Amino acid sequence: MTIDLIILGLVLLFAVVGAMTGAARQIAHMVALAVAWFVSRRLGPILGPRMAEALGGTPLLIGTLAASLLLFLVLLVAVRYVLTVLLRRLLGARDSDRQGVDGVLGFVLGGLKVGIIAYVALSALVFVEKNVVVAGKKLGLSPKDSVSFELARRYNAFELTQFAAVRDMVAVTRVMTHPEQARDLAEDPAYKALKQDPRYQRALSDKRLRAAIERGDTQEVLRSNLVMQLLQDPEFVARLGAVAHAADSDDGPPRKLKPRAQPPPRDPPADSERSPDPR
């Protein structure tokens, strides 16, 4: 709970600072956050291999994550500074009649800004903790009794966005081993392109990776450099998503109607059991 109290204190502190500095500067900060997140998602996978080499040949997953975080921080500071200067020149001094509303907006945006930054940082720590193994053991970076870390585990920013395609890859590979579903998707252009992709086939030829996919172990799949290289290709990711969506839509078998229950046989009337008249 200590880390939760620290985060809450930082949110309140910067909310008060936001109320003092005004909404204009906080808007600049929020725009900088959005730009930094968008660009780091796009360029992080591209710079990941170089970052992995610079870190001494670490796995591509760690290089991509480190490059994304570094880009995020650099762009956040740079864009925020530029926008703050521009807004000061455009808006000038604040009108005294609008200082109340400006202060309230600054309070809300200032706290929200720190909350988003904390969410990204905690998501990165949780992602590293779940997917990085050192000397056969996972890194224990997060306290178990923290509400903030528990939310980051359940709704991890990197798992939901940048590395979400690994779930599609697991689903599509399972479809390929399912005869009926594979037959239904045989004429799908995206499915054909995936089956003919030599990089994908090379990844599936790895027995350890194939076993992890069959188990649905996305953490083990993400540790593969072959998979990380595939997920850096936007066209490959788009094909994965298309095939996974098509498989989901065709996954449910047609519902069978239950046969109508037959009424129980009626007992024959008493006079029907009379013995035939000997006459």
Automatic annotation (TrEMBL):
Alphabetic keyword roster: Membrane, Transmembrane, Transmembrane helix
One Pfam short name: Colicin_V
Record carries keyword Transmembrane helix: yes
Recorded GO CC terms: membrane
Highest taxon in the source lineage: Bacteria
Gene Ontology BP terms: toxin biosynthetic process
Localization of this protein: Membrane
The keyword Transmembrane helix belongs to this UniProt entry's keyword annotation: yes
Bias type Basic and acidic residues, positions: 268-279
Residues covered by region (Disordered): 242-279
Membrane-crossing segments per the record: 60-83, 104-128
Topology class, membrane: Multi-pass membrane protein
Major subcellular site: membrane
Regions annotated as coiled coil: none
Protein name: Colicin V production protein
Native species: Melittangium boletus DSM 14713
